[in-house]
Amino acid sequence: MNPAGLPEQMRRAWAIAKKDIRIYYFKGPVLIFGIFMPIFLFLAFLMGSRELPLPFLVSGLIGMTLFFTATAVSPAIFPWEGSAKTLERLASCPITIEAIVFGDMIASTLLGIGITLFTVIIGLVLGLTLLHGIILCIAIFLAAWCFSAIGMLLAVPPTNVPSNIMMLSSLIKFPLVFISGIFIPLEQMPSWGLVLAVCSPLTYFTDLIRYSFTGVHYFPVLIDLVALGVFTLVFTVITMVLHKRTISKRM
Amino acid sequence: MSDAIDVKNLTKQFGTTVAVDNISFSVQEGEIFGFLGPNGAGKTTTTRMLTGVIPAEAGTATILGYDIRREPVMAKQGFGVVPETSNAYADLTAWQNLMLMGELYGLGRARAIKRASDLLGMLGLIERKDQKVQAYSKGMKQRLILAMALLHEPELLFLDEPTSGLDVHSTRMILSLLRDLNRAGTTIFLTTHNMEEANRLCHRVGIIRNGKIVAIDAPEKLKTAIDRVHRIEVSFDRDVPGDALLRLDGVTGANRTGDKWQITAENRDTAIRSLVAFSQQNNRKIITLNTIAPSLDDAFLRLTEEAGP
Ligand SMILES: Nc1ncnc2c1ncn2[C@@H]1O[C@H](COP(=O)(O)OP(=O)(O)OP(=O)(O)O)[C@@H](O)[C@H]1O
Ligand SMILES: [Mg+2]
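Output (structure tokens, whole complex):
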């Protein structure tokens, strides 16, 4: 066994993820921002919006749910661990910062996927038909990973006060939802709105869900997948590099 | 014997405070090294740099043959750490904490289970193993953290004030465990405020003040090195005149305190011989004769209170 080798570090990242799942899934802010809020928003819009067609609305709401759940845990883990001093313990263990970040992202991704599958089931119960299951699965997996990387990125400022990071992340998350074609179809957006929408990974994910349920899409499916993949890769790399730089400031 | 820890010109600054100022030292394999210093001297900062928690601004630390900055994972694989503030996961049970450590150090499941039960048994925590650490007392937490540090059987153990705030029972338990580990070959780097502990446990101690190392030596040598003047306490069965004592060879002062005489001497050996000869010649019996060695406390205070850096 080479402790510094990739397979061993991956195994240790999985240990980090299991620990995160045990501890952080059940923390108050995660339950509120990650589970109750998206589900209540989902139900509120479902009942309130009569003029939008149901399949359009439900697929947008699935996108929003994944976005909120996958970014719920990841921003708060580092601040929590920093203030509880458990981060110091991890920093003295034979695991790289990249593997710690990777483990946190696994936990965050799994929460996103779990809750989102639940809303997909609600959608199916409401009468939606699933046209492209495989595309949906790939899209959910990619997007969950991408969003959890965004969540980790939000935690880069080395503050150990979780509520600060929670507020900062809400400040960024809500506007993103509005420019990503969830409530306003891309076809109806003004051109400046489209420019913003292109910059948001959530746009491509929403487009893919719509395609999976209705067959209608704005961008070509391949473009959606590639864009999502590139965003995922870029955010993952950036968050690892930045955390490596700032982690010692949390001690 | 090779060095378990080799530190060269290590420096750390926080803003304008220089917490650790260009220190160099080494700790041999199999040694118990005590790291002493007043509050804020830079002990914890040094320990954190050596364990790869914070980066140094300058200098290098080689731990078990690996540079802690360049090959952190390889270095960390070989040592265990008991940090200054307890940091087990409060939301996990003792057992879950230990299993997490097992996975982070790459131990197989069976070995982790065996080690965890052995350690919890040895440290008296086995009945409470399924309780969340939140509910643990300070002493229990500290023992758990020691178990977490020892799970992977490290060759080198860093401890930052492991017994501060613990009762006699927990302290004894931890110290005797450290002694046993050392006998079995573990190198120990120990930060402490307890001079008695350092005196009895450590092969060598380093004293740090204002981020600089002011002395490194065996405790006994440090003690004798600080005091050029030796003190001897003697009592006789009958009164003796003070001026007679003062005239003895090697004696530079004699003060009466209660029924004893405090003798100061330049050379302890000469003074003792003179005192014995004196008692024979004058037909006095010596009832007690003690050489009063400076304690490590004295040495510490002297070394850390000298004016100016
Ligand atoms: N994270 C930090 N930020 C700013 N200053 C720090 C930080 N950590 C330590 N210092 C400063 O560095 C100096 C050394 O602190 P350190 O904690 O190493 O002392 P110590 O010898 O462990 O003291 P103690 O016996 O009280 O534990 C102190 O002046 C302290 O204020
Ligand atoms: Mg300290």
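Chain B has a mean pLDDT of 90.
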